[in-house]
Amino acid sequence: MGDWQQILFERRVLTWATLMVFLGTGLWVAALATPYWLIHIPVDDERIIWGHSGIWKKCDLVEENDKLQWECWDSFRMDSSSLSIMLRSELSLSGVTLLLTIGALVFSWYSINHPKYTYRRLAAVLHLLVAASLLAVIQLVDSETHHVLHDADSANLLYGYSYLLAWCSFLVSISAAITFLLASRKRKLLNNENVDFRHEKLDIFVPVKR
């Protein structure tokens, strides 16, 4: 495969990678918006049937007077100060992750239209930071401090679909980082003043000798 063919192939791959990051961002927003990170099924509690929680909300299905009803409340209004600090840290880190994702998407799209290795490496670093932030939030949710939301009964805790969506978003970000890093080699052809990308094509200008 010639150098120019490799450049066009990398451009198509990076375009698909960027589109996958858009999808991964949607999965991350869905994970944050839904309180199904952890599922709790108590064994010895006669009142609570089962419950679920996320970063900002907790719900329990309870039985009272032979009736089933949902009880939901804001996780930040818990009595435990350490738990409140943990939840606020999770939410703050989630917001930072979204900002990093926006920056990664902007530089990814820019590096596709301006295929310089520095732009692609910067996009790779941003995607790597997004993946690290996602992993940090996932680990915080899976910590013992967060398990206190369910009376620290971690033996009966299951992972919900919000937790799986967060992992999918992490895999998309780490894959994008690797893809942009592999495509960030220096190209002699791109250093030529007579070569440029325009209208999704590699334009090569041949100077006219006089």
Q: Can you characterise this structure?
A:
- This protein is α+β, with helices and mostly antiparallel strands.
- The protein has 5 helices and 7 strands.
- The strands form 2 sheets. The chain has a 5-stranded antiparallel sheet. A two-stranded antiparallel sheet has the order 6-7.
- α1 runs antiparallel to α5 (161-182).
- Mean pLDDT is 78; it is low at 189-194 and 199-208.
Question: What number is the mean pLDDT?
Answer: 78
Given the structure, what is the number of helices? 5
C-alpha geometry = elongated
Number of strands: 7
Strand coverage percent = 15-25%
Strand order of the largest sheet: 4-3-2-1-5
Note the run of SSEs as H and E. HEEEEHHHEHEE
Taking the sheet with the most strands, its summary is:
5 strands, antiparallel
Radius of gyration: 24 Å
> Ranges with pLDDT <50 over ≥5 residues?
189-194, 199-208
Q: Whole-Å distance between the termini?
A: 33 Å
Helix content: 40-55%
**Structural class determined from secondary elements:** alpha+beta
